[in-house]
Amino acid sequence: MTMNTILQAILDFDEALLKKSVQEQLDAGTDINIILDKGLIQAMDVVGQKFTKGEIFVPEMMIAAETMQVGLELLKPLLVSDSNESKGTIVIGTVKGDLHDIGKNLVSLMLDGGGFDVIDLGVDIEPEKFIQAAEENKADIIGLSALLTTAMPIMEKTVNLIKKSNLPAKTFIGGAPVTLQFSEQIGADGYSENAPGAVAVARKLIANALPVN
Ligand code: B12
Question: For 96, which of 30, 52, 133, 151 is 20 to 30 Å away at the CA?
Answer without folding.
Answer: 52
